[in-house]
Amino acid sequence: MARRKSAYDREVNTRRTKAVIVDTREKKPWTFKQQTSKKLNVGDYTIQGGKTKVLIERKGSIYDLYATFRPKNRERFMRNMEQAVKKVDNVFLLLETSLAAVYRGVRENPVPPHVVIEHLLQLMEMGIRVLYTGGAKNSGRDFIDRILYRFGSM
């Protein structure tokens, strides 16, 4: 059975005037009705036009998240997120997984769960909003759309 569109969904589809910018390096990007691709210095999704008000860094799976915090990747990622907070009003880290999965960890990854949790807490201390979608199908895309609409039109 098809999901009935809410008043919010109808408003997003009819009132969005700015295109979503998707980073060209995003491996499996979500698509949007109004969209353009551009290399972003930090993050995966933002809104076109003027001063950047919102930026979303997406981790599409638990494996992607854990790979980010491997020693060879962690320093660059944390540095990029620090730069984002200095330049952008609203920075989000969208995790397409659950908090329970983060605590369980990834068997093949040498990074223990407590290290990942510690880095997520550091990101929160920087002012980055960490959101979990729970991994439900298309929930990440819906969340990105709503965040960009809400914070991109402020």
What keywords describe this structure?
154 residues; 6 strands; 18% strand; single chain; six-stranded mixed beta sheet; alpha/beta; globular
Task: Provide a compact summary of the structure.
The protein is of the alpha/beta class and 154 residues long.
Structure commentary:
This protein has 154 residues and is of the alpha/beta class. It has one domain (7-152): Rossmann fold. It has six helices and six strands. It has helices at 7-15, 62-68, 71-87, 99-104, 113-126, 139-152; strands spanning 20-23, 35-38, 45-47, 54-59, 90-95, 129-132. The protein has a six-stranded mixed beta sheet with strand order 2-1-3-4-5-6, with helices on both faces. A hairpin with a 6-residue loop joins β3 (45-47) and β4 (54-59). It is globular and about 40 Å long.
Radius of gyration: 16 Å
Q: Could you give the count of β-strands? A: 6
Residue-averaged pLDDT, rounded? Answer: 84
The helix/strand order is HEEEEHHEHHEH
Helix content: 40-55%
CATH A-level architecture: 3-Layer(aba) Sandwich
Strand content: 15-25%
**What is the terminal separation in angstroms?**
34 Å
Low-confidence stretches: none
Architecture blueprint of SSEs:
Layout: H1 7-15, E1 20-23, E2 35-38, E3 45-47, E4 54-59, H2 62-68, H3 71-87, E5 90-95, H4 99-104, H5 113-126, E6 129-132, H6 139-152
Parallel strand pairs: 1-2, 4-5, 5-6
Antiparallel strand pairs: 1-3, 3-4
